[in-house]
Amino acid sequence: MLRKVQVMGLIALASILAPASLFAQRATRRPPAGIAGCYKLTLGEWSRPLGDNAGYHAIPSTVRLDSARAIRGGWRALPDISYPTPNRLRGTPSWTAPRDTIEIMWSNGFQSTTVRLGRRGARELRGSAIVWSDANEFGTDLPRARVTARRTACAP
What we know:
It is a single chain. This protein is 16% helix and 36% strand. It is an alpha+beta fold and 156 residues long. It has one domain. The radius of gyration is 20 Å and the shape is globular. The termini are far apart. 21% of the residues are buried.
């Protein structure tokens, strides 16, 4: 009987706390101040060849970090990406700002590219691009390249 009471108490406690924790995770946050805007991207050399799927990991010359919410969380990113086939993972491209970094991600649903950047002054972000594939053709040695993002005027 005591065990049943303990289980019922645990269920009651969970039902009281769960809505608060779910609400906290879904709370709408604003993007970090001074980040939204347009950036010109410069890509260094990849650490290893990208193979047949290189077209899915092309780094756009410019990206707009929007302040509108993205479907999968974070905010919309508007890079000029043209995949070899028209697939695109719903809710991407998008960007988030965990801790002191900015992460921009786009994917066709099978191949993804993530660009992680940190602030370097008022007009520049630096970091790296990392690619991933659901076919795991890269193993644990994922291709990486240095990326520099410099603020630029947004095209109309």
